Amino acid sequence: MISVGVAVGVAVIVFVTALIQGLQSNIIERTLGTQAHIRLISPDEVNIVLPTAKGTLQLIQEDKRAQRLRSINNWQQISASLDQLPLLTAVSPVVSGPAFARRGEAVGSVALVGIDLARYQKIIPLKNYLIGGQLRVGAGDALIGSQLAKDLGVQVGSKLRLDTGQQNSAVVNIAGIFELGVRELDARYVYLDLKQAQSLLGLPGGVTVIDLRVADIFAAETIAGQVGRLTSLQAESWIKTNAQLMNALTAQSLSTNMIIVFVAISVAFGIASVLSVSVVQRTREIGILRATGATRQQILRIFLIQGAVFGLLGSLIGTGVSYALVWVFNRFGPGLFYIPVSSTLILVTMLLATLTGVLAAAVPSRRAAALDPVVAIRYV
Amino acid sequence: MSDNTREVLRLDNLRKSYNLGQPNEIEVLHGINFNIGRNDFAALVGPSGSGKSTLLNILGLLDKPTSGELYLLGQATSGMDDATRTALRGSSIGFVFQFHHLIQAFTALENVLMPLMLTRGKPDKLALQQAHELLAAVGLATFANSKPNQLSGGQQQRVAIARALITEPALLLADEPTGNLDTRTAADVFDLFRKVNRERGCAVLLVTHDPRLSASCERTINLVDGRIESDTLNN
Known about the structure:
The complex is a heterodimer.
Chain A: H1 2-32, E1 38-41, H2 75-83, E2 88-103, E3 106-115, H3 117-123, H4 126-129, E4 130-133, E5 141-145, H5 146-152, E6 159-163, E7 169-178, H6 183-188, E8 189-193, H7 194-200, E9 209-214, H8 220-231, E10 234-237, H9 238-241, H10 243-281, H11 283-291, H12 296-332, H13 343-370, H14 373-377
Parallel strand pairs in A: 3-8, 5-7
Antiparallel strand pairs in A: 1-9, 1-10, 2-3, 2-6, 2-9, 4-7, 5-8, 6-7
Chain B: E1 7-18, E2 26-37, E3 41-45, H1 52-59, E4 67-72, E5 75-76, H2 82-92, E6 93-96, H3 108-120, H4 125-137, H5 153-165, E7 171-175, H6 183-200, E8 203-208, H7 211-216, E9 219-224, E10 227-233
Parallel strand pairs in B: 3-8, 3-9, 6-7, 7-8
Antiparallel strand pairs in B: 1-2, 1-4, 4-5, 9-10
Helix pairs in contact in B: 3-4, 3-5, 4-5, 5-6
């Protein structure tokens, strides 16, 4: 009976945890699928004000400077040294700036992104998002988003004029069309070769952003700090740029943990009360066991093991039930995302349940072991 | 009175008080002295409240005397810690209670094997054979795999006796072993005790109210108000 109670508790814990894990990894995957974990950009330009002479008061009326498009100084060296950092799994220098895409009468404002395709693929796997054409930049080839293609009525093989408004313009050939699944990006991103974008944006040999990818996405903020200090550039992690998302995820994890703790507590009390009753019911049997040579330790062990068995058995059943629940969810659920059930989660939960069983059994088994055999035998 | 070279139990001025140091302190055993030898088949009799049960608990190492010494197989027991007492109890003393006290979840065979399992773990072939022999000796060879609730009261009591004998104890303590059995079954169980005493050389001490039972024993120790009033041999 109590094992069923434990089973329900374990099933709830495993299912809820797996659900939340699946949901969170799905959200993060979607968010990070289309953006770099860390972006390095030039620090903002500021007005340099002469220091005041001692004893004088300076009143300043200052217009903040406009942040023009400019290259990161020494980006080749920075990029090369970042390549050596084991914390980072990918480094991709990018030049990006605004432009107009024109086809006949139709005009769209776009963001030109000049990339080194091989490096950039490690940041955003464009290959996975390609819906038409080929993955190719350079020699006048460009990749555009599906929404832009629709707006301008172009398809793979069409020509497109890109105009940066700085007396620079070029006609590119649309080599491929991608769909990132974020409308804003699909309507604005135009991927070009690094060199072509540099000349279009008037930044020959320069890059404006270095995109980074890290192994541990939740350490992105700390790593961003380190990389920022190392390069004296402005480093923005995805955690900072998606602060709201992170807040939501943290709150969600917190509520999951609360559920787990409270379920575990109620399971523990269930086991403890069942064993307490069992100690009272078996008082006489405990007395006989003691009289026939059982030591206090043996009695203690019997009840502790019983608690552990309750926990283990319950968690076995509960795991089975939660597997079934997850299977049903994955098979017949809304199909928005897939719930993975990791073996670590199962093992940890089973271990926790068994441990809870032993802990819950501690009080009743101590009571059983402390029973005076003289009293216990005559207990009716 | 008893063969001193084969002494099982010796009581030396044994006293027991309850509520020690409190205003309601009461002494229930006032200096008990007697010996029990290997071949003794004795009855401990006395009216209710005379201290029989207290004495039995002390003899069985379940309880400790307040003063005086209890020698079991020549060893003084007062200085022993709980673990040693438990081990000695497990190996040298068999208990039979008024209520059979079998473990309901176990079969008759498992109940008999229990004392061995407690001290040695999983029973070996020899232990199994021994248990079967004991069940046969108490006339329950065919009931080895029955649960206690499938046995009659007399049969359950006989299983309890087999359980008490599995460790080959030097002393068998029985507290009103026939107390809730009908006369005929009681006689059977009593005969079994006698057989055990004769064939296995195991000292038997019966606590009983029944004068006919005590008269059938070889020796009667009469306890009145915490003192031994008489200790006589019957014939």
